[in-house]
């Protein structure tokens, strides 16, 4: 009897790394660069493109703003940024190209609440499918007294995300899907979103892993040299600090992809912003074995592309990381009961 092999669940994906965006860079200029990256990824066949955290602006959390109007200029106020006059052209181009996108931005709600957010836009459905708000907010509320320090004031400008870690599916994203499909099927990939610092927290990944996640999308803006923020010893050189930070970034993407048997895409904003502030590159695509499939070679605008088979997640999920067979939840209570360190 002839047994037909199952068709591979192939998905072509890209990380759209963005080079420096300065404090005085016009929003329209940044948007044009994002659209050019989207077009470049589409030409390579990408069905999904991931953009960085706070993709439309500089990483403004390094600055102290005393004028609310100046701060507000960095936030998107429209409840649906895919329909905004400012950011809408990116989504219109995604729909024209039939490419899904995940993009990060600074969100201000009608009630005045502020979040570091990302949304997933489906070109097939012509709408935002879901939103994620950054949970693990790093940095401080108050500036560091040292005038030479690079501040990291995310806790001043953003609330911790209140939407949790909700995995989701998108209809018709992979090649097996019917081109007319508008509802999800079991063949559609299970996706999850993280933003920057969230990628360092294994609890976030495990929440997605327990939902069977197959692909995690993560945008980031990560300082290369910031001793006051990271607690790095002050004698370390900027070059060594940047190389260490880059290695740690790849480490958490690779380790967590492996431990949750999933692919991941990390898209960063990189380079020297405002002539002083260094952001690492390292945008990459990682497989379920923890191997880097593709990565950025520069700290400028660059598309990182890979073709993945989502069924490659099955080996880990069905064997070494078969959660149903091997997790020992009765021993993990400390993880959810305790926040700070309590020495023995």
Automatic annotation (TrEMBL):
Signal peptide boundaries: 1-16
Domain of life where this protein originates: Eukaryota
A GO MF term: hydrolase activity, acting on carbon-nitrogen (but not peptide) bonds, in linear amides
Pfam family, one: CN_hydrolase
Ranges for domain CN hydrolase: 11-310
Keywords recorded for this protein, A-Z: Hydrolase, Signal
UniProt name for this protein: CN hydrolase domain-containing protein
Source species: Talaromyces islandicus (Penicillium islandicum)
Lineage start: Eukaryota, Fungi, Dikarya, Ascomycota, Pezizomycotina
């Amino acid at each position: 009897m002839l047994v037909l092999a199952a068709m591979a669940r192939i998905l072509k994906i890209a990380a759209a790394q963005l080079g420096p965006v300065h404090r005085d860079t016009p929003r329209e200029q940044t948007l044009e660069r994002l659209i050019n990256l989207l077009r470049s990824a589409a030409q390579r066949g990408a069905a999904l493109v991931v953009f960085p955290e706070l993709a439309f602006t500089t990483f403004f959390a390094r600055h102290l703003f005393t004028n609310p109007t100046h701060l507000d200029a960095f936030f998107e106020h429209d409840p649906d940024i895919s329909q905004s006059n400012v950011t809408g052209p990116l989504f219109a181009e995604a729909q024209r190209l039939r490419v899904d996108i995940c993009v990060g931005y600074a969100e201000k709600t009608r009630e005045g609440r502020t979040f570091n957010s990302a949304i997933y836009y489906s070109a097939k459905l012509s709408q935002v499918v879901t939103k994620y708000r950054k949970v693990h907010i790093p940095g401080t509320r108050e500036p560091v007294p040292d005038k030479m320090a690079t501040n990291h004031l995310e806790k001043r400008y953003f609330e911790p995300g209140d939407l949790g870690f909700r995995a989701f599916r998108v209809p018709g994203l992979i090649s097996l899907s019917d081109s007319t499909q508008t509802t999800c099927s079991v063949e559609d990939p299970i996706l999850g979103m993280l933003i920057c610092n969230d990628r360092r927290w294994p609890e976030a990944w495990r929440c997605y892993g327990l939902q069977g996640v197959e692909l995690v999308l993560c945008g980031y803006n990560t300082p290369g040299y910031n001793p006051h923020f990271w607690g790095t010893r002050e004698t370390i050189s900027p070059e060594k600090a940047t190389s260490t930070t880059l290695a740690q970034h790849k480490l958490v993407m690779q380790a967590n992809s492996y431990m949750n048997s999933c692919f991941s895409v990390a898209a960063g904003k990189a380079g020297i912003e405002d002539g002083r502030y260094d952001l690492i590159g390292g945008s990459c695509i990682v497989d379920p074995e923890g191997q880097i499939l593709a990565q950025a070679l520069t700290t400028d605008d660059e598309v990182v592309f890979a073709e993945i088979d989502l069924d490659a997640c099955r080996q880990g999920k069905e064997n070494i990381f078969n959660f149903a067979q091997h997790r020992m939840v009765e021993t993990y209570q400390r993880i959810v009961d305790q926040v700070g360190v309590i020495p023995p």
